[in-house]
Amino acid sequence: MKNPAADDKVELVDDVGIGYRLRKCGKTRLVIIAVVVALLIIGGIAAAVYILTIISNQIDTSKDPCDDFYAYACGGFIKTHQLNENQSSIGGFTIVNDDNMKVLQQAMVNASAKYNQSSFILKTVKIYDSCLNTSAIESRGSSPLEKLIELYGGWSVTGKGLNAWTVPEKMGRVLRDLNVQTLLRASVGTDFEDSSQHILNLNIASLGMSFKYYFDQKDRSIKVREAYKTYMKTIAKLLGGGPFSDSKMDAIYDFESGIAESVDPDTVSEDLIESLMEHHRSGRSLDDLDQTIEEFWLDSDFETSFVTDFLNSAFYNQGVTFSSYDKVYYPQSDVYKDVFKAMASQYQNKNKQTVKDYIMWRVIDSYVMSMPDNFLQAKLKYLKAVSGLLAENKRWSDCLEIMMSPMSFTLGRLYVDANFDESTKTTVKDMTTRLRQSFIDNLDDSDWMDSSTKQSAKAKAQAIKEDIGYPAFIKHDKKLDKQYSLLSAGEDYFENTVSMNKFIVQNNFAVLREPVDKDMWMESPAQVNGYYSPQQNRIVFLAGILQSPFYRKYWPKYINYGSLAMVIGHEITHGFDSQGRLYDKDGNVKNWWSYSSTYNFDEKAQCLVNQYNNYDVFGTPIDGKQTLNENIADNGGIKLAYDAYQSWVKDNKKEGQLPDLGLSVDKLFFIGFATVSVKLKQKLKGKRHKRPLTTQRKHD
């Protein structure tokens, strides 16, 4: 607000997030100042009461924090919230996500009018509206999927549109156009040895179920198996399968189970980094990380011609051709090799039409949830058998969730315009600076790491880049229009789903022989997340997570440092956990640890493993080894956040404690930490599933 007199100014300076002080006040404004002061005092009291109320409702003072801090810090929340029969949990992340989805829902209402010159927004609205138009989806019946089946080589189960495509050619076509991975999973990622370059990754494609369900003899697994078979046969009938469709679906199931039954599911992970860690632990040379397609043949039993035919078909739009000498990364542990060989054996020994039918089944399964309700209900019945619970979301929420990956930046733009305070960036940047320095100070105090390793760790910490809120380009309409220029959007939801999936896979494939953009954001600013990227040596905090309860602009710093700074510290620490420590400051896999420091790290890590092995959830013991990296990050994050807050106090002014609670500032810091951790949850039979509307996951 402009003042009428240049020498009569009222300057409001944020002191502790609640109160304010006045500077350089002209005498002629004393009456106004008195009113302002009164309002600020009243506002400060109201804010304090509001904060006090929220915290009082969160904690349970009948519990002793020294006996059970979680029960004390989160007990009030647990008592005042209830789960319905289809909810697995309620907590900070789910609450913020629900709020963010409502922001986007409202933004979509007026988007066409507000952004009427922006083609990327108009495409987003068109796709969203087509998803909401369930009457149009119902009126089209099974025809969209039937046409897709015919277009991509037919399906002997329904006896339509069979052609002479080979198996690898069919695999490549459904990948490049539909983003459906079958047998071999192909994606473009960052080269482990040179983080400035891309490399082709080959991995295991998922099956229709988790591996264990195919052969585990527990009652629940048997139930899931039967539900899956019923689902398969129901969909075949809905698509016009004749009297032999059941036997053909049995053959497809046998093909899947033949792969799963040849391996131990407890030792299989789809995460490439797990194989990389095993490679590192075994002491093998990094020269062995990247192999050729010919070497993949020797390790997997997939003939070179099979792999190159598949890849040439998949990368047809890029005009890229592959030979047996092209470089590729694939997991090289014995477990992975066993799975690859099992897949190759099934391919070689089964009727090729059965293999083609399996490929088409994976396509159908991927697109079922874009179909009318009778298809949806068949899938949901199976998913119910898997998890015991099924999250029942409103249709608009499902539509936004499924658009979040392909339309990540357009939805991010809508969210940021509607719900992001730009001043948050300054606060979070200051937090990050203090957290980084706290980490370096802790390195100086450590006595288990030798000087050389310590200096390399400092260099890596200092090199960590941070990005806050959103990428700058999403504020520029022309840049976003260009980003989404290859995405088509029409009136029909099924075709829009195909279009989004093709957009995802083609964007990934397009960068194969291009340098890595280390400033690329991997998630939408509208999502509730922060992440550390080891190959970028970079932390990113999305606008969607910079909301209550993770961050509250006017709350005391001790609360915000306990909550948001802990999350930032958690991500910084990931750069030095048992996975992150394998990468150097430039994001390359490199062993910069001395033997003694590695030995000491492993000893301290084992201590955490042993500690968490003594905890349980719903009576099931925690696997401390499996959760090690998150446990390292949690413990490191809270330590860094506390130290960083002390740094803030030293440079500013100690804040007062909240009235009535009788808790010191230090204790309130840990209450702030608990505001992020509060969660009410119930035991599930398996992994919780949402109602998917179908776009495939982003590529690795």
TrEMBL record:
Indicate yes or no for the key word Iron-sulfur.
no
Positions of the Peptidase M13 N-terminal domain: 65-471
Matching InterPro entries: MetalloPept_cat_dom_sf, Peptidase_M13, Peptidase_M13_C, Peptidase_M13_dom_2, Peptidase_M13_N
GO-annotated molecular function = metal ion binding; metalloendopeptidase activity
One GO cellular component term of this record is:
plasma membrane
- Which keywords has UniProt assigned to this entry? Hydrolase, Membrane, Metal-binding, Metalloprotease, Protease, Transmembrane, Transmembrane helix, Zinc
Protein name per Swiss-Prot or TrEMBL: Endothelin-converting enzyme 1
Origin superkingdom: Eukaryota
Per its Swiss-Prot or TrEMBL entry, what cofactor is needed? Zn(2+)
Q: Does the keyword Transmembrane apply?
A: yes
Q: TM segments?
A: 30-52
SUPFAM superfamilies the record matches? Metalloproteases ('zincins'), catalytic domain
Per UniProt, residues of the Peptidase M13 C-terminal domain are 529-679
Looking up PROSITE patterns in the UniProt record yields: NEPRILYSIN
Q: Which GO terms describe its biological process?
A: protein processing
